[in-house]
Amino acid sequence: MEIWRPSSAIRRRISCSVMRIVPSAVFIAQLVYGINAADTSEVATMARTAVVGLALVLFTFCAFGAQVLPQQRNRGVDLAIRGKVVIGNGGDVGQRVEVRLEKTTMQVVQTTYTDGGGGFEFRNLAPGSYFISVTADGYESARQQVEVFNNFGASNVTIFISKSAADPRSRLSGLDAEDRDVIDISQMKENLPKKAVQEYEKAIEEKKRGKLENAIKLLENAVRLAPNFYHAHNNLGSLYQSLKRYPEAEKEYTRSRELNAKSERPLVNLGSLYIEEAELEKENAELTGRILDQALDALEAAVKLNPRSAPAYLLLGTANYKSSFLEEAEAAFKKAHDLNPNLTRIHLWLANIYVMQHKWQEVIDETDTYLKESPNAPDRAAVEDIRAKIAREHAQ
Fold this sequence. Notes:
By secondary structure, the chain is of the alpha+beta class. The chain has 13 helices and seven strands. The chain has a domain at 76-99 and 111-168: Sandwich (Immunoglobulin-like), CATH 2.60.40.1120. The protein has helices spanning 8-18, 185-191, 194-208, 212-225, 230-242, 246-259, 265-280, 285-305, 310-322, 326-339, 346-356, 360-373, 380-393; strands at residues 80-87, 98-103, 107-113, 119-122, 128-135, 142-148, 154-161. It has a four-stranded antiparallel β-sheet with strand order 3-2-5-6. α7 runs antiparallel to α8 (285-305). The radius of gyration is 21 Å and the shape is globular.
């Protein structure tokens, strides 16, 4: 079903007034793929996205969104991710494995190695949505999402990896590993200057080590040698964004879009960039509205290019939610979940929307679905508590 959306000009006039009344959130949901802006104390949104993390904010339920519980402010909790890497049959890998903590488009936050039993840990984290990436010789690479919530201590995760069906060295790995139109290194060497591809490969390795400045210099050299190097431009934009060099990131994403008009990825990245920038300008409602309009334009174009892109719809929902376009946000979130049912925390986004619309039965239904689909969710106790309060105070 086609979703009507206001034009940019109309949206801008609406958002300039609406954005002064920021929607409050009862539940916190995830953000994926391209956002790393920090959340406000009133709105639960995707953050990089990264995009940098989401804060868990619980509100009193007499007014639902009027006041933040005092004990939730400034509580010092050591947020961490603890996990174990195992092979598909449950056995140990038998080697020390590199494990990377990443935001969105493979932006490295921390890097560590497993211990003798396959265990690993990342500490001193900000709340938000992360990805755990695992690379081991002879095994398929794995990338799994994990949420870190404020005031909930450590999140636990198990990463399963499988024996490689083919020589992994023949495949592209690193920044572009998840791009559906990616070409392998051998094809790059056929179509691009050898030195440019070598710089690109070195950049991937430097990024894996967390040496982002080195990776940036290598990619900058790659695009100087090969101005039409799409993947180098796109990944250079990603690295610029991770360092909050927003004008440069926008330039690289735009160039990527020019070089590959058939891919939605640069548009999704532009959308994530604008959402992040809007978060930084949250004190200026008019400017925030204009920046979010840019995000909406980019993400709407992305879903037209690839109607099967769950990340694009998820970010489109976020941009609409932050713009107070709740019906459009609801439709986009539902579409993202239809495309990827593993995005279970979309149910919490929907619950937030229904709270603002005072649709209490829908709030309970979405909460119940989330709890059913995520029996081991780290925020389960908090969600159950909120659900119980809603049921008591809004019993039919």
